[in-house]
Amino acid sequence: MSIIQAIILAIIEGLTEFLPVSSTGHMIIGSSLMGIASHPFVKVFTVAIQFGAILSVVVLYWRRFFQNFRFYIRLLVAFLPAAFFGLLFKKHIDRLLEDVTVVAWALIAGGIVFLFMDGYFARQAERGSQSEDDISLPKAFRIGFFQVISMIPGVSRSAATIIGGVTQGLTPVAAAEFSFFLAVPTMFAATCKSIWDYIDEEGGTFSGNDLLLLAVGNVVAFVVATFAIRTFMQFLHKHGFKVFGYYRIAVGCIILILWYLGYFKDVQVGNF
């Protein structure tokens, strides 16, 4: 993988990680079109650069991370379901879902859900709670189970947790912010596990060039994610989620077309 390809993937990661559009689907398209999807290092790279993305959340919302201890308890409770089921079933799910068409159909299904729930989101924007401080521990736990759904490739962790937050009484904006916060422990754990598996199970090593690519990727992902989060929040204050529904359906259809044309013969969803 060249440094240009690394930068392109990092831009994709930064733009899509916190939007409800599935970074997995976009990574598949990007890496496949560049012809690097089957490279072993690409697998760990696409996960490891999430560290730069989550760092943008910490920087943008640093005051929230120092407000009170209950904030961390709430995040821990919401994180536990994904941690438990991720460790227990991740490899089995990867083996069952090593098909990019699963990503495509999950994108399309999620898009349809957004279109149907747009009216509900609009009502919650007016009557829902505007602060994640109002999330009780049982509600945080239930939101965590929505995050488990995102283990299905293409669902989108952001989409699942935002929908979970709204169903638990938050406004879409507050749900999006809680989704950002929940991403920090979730994605940090995923990054650590990916690096560990790459070294321990696959016998992988990092060359000097690999470390350079990881460093550049994380910096780019951080900068782009910072921009994406700010833009996303400004957009949510003025618009709903309908546009993301249409976008997900379009991306899902693009993946199906590319799959039909044979672009994904060597791609496995588990790589992302």
Would you give an account of this structure?
This protein is an all-alpha fold. The chain has one domain. It has eleven helices and no strands. The model has no long low-confidence stretch (mean pLDDT 86).
Please write out the topology:
Blueprint: H1 3-16, H2 23-33, H3 40-48, H4 50-60, H5 69-96, H6 100-127, H7 137-149, H8 157-167, H9 172-200, H10 208-238, H11 242-260
Question: In a nutshell, what does this entry contain?
Answer:
With 272 residues, this protein is an all-alpha fold.
Name some characteristics of this structure.
272 residues; 11 helices
The helix-strand sequence is HHHHHHHHHHH
Structural class: mainly alpha
Task: Compute the separation of the termini in Å.
Answer: 16 Å
Q: Bin the helical content.
A: over 70%
Number of helices: 11
Give a short account of the largest sheet.
none
Shape: globular
Mean model confidence by pLDDT: 86
- Uncertain runs are none
- Rounded radius of gyration (Å): 18 Å
Strand content: under 5%
SS elements, strand count:
0
Number of domains: 1
